[in-house]
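Review form for a predicted model. The reviewer records the input and the model, then writes brief findings.
Reviewer: anonymous (R2)
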Amino acid sequence: MENLIAYLNESLVPLEEKVKAYLQVEQDIRHLEVEILTHRKNNAAEASAKEEDLNGLLQKYNKLREEVVQMLPEQNKFIEINLGYGPSMVGYFTVDHETHQTLPEPVLRVVH
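Model under review:
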């Protein structure tokens, strides 16, 4: 029988914290993109400043992505983690699970 509470393992806490940070930066990027589009019509200077902020967030996002990938024990498999609201999954995939073909660019997937 499968262990249904394996995702509560204390050794997964650093990975969980890194994934939470990754998801928060992803959300911040989306909000900032909306702000940029809003200010582009009215205030080009403010939009330009926000685009610089966006570049910083994108760098942070890519760094966190690489850190999450390095923390995963294996590729092409989901790992169950606890993001605070029940089991979630994170995995780094280099092969399409349906076609079994190598992906042109590896994908980090978070299911929450």
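Findings: The mean pLDDT is 89.
Further findings: The chain has one domain: 8-111.
Recommendation: see findings above.
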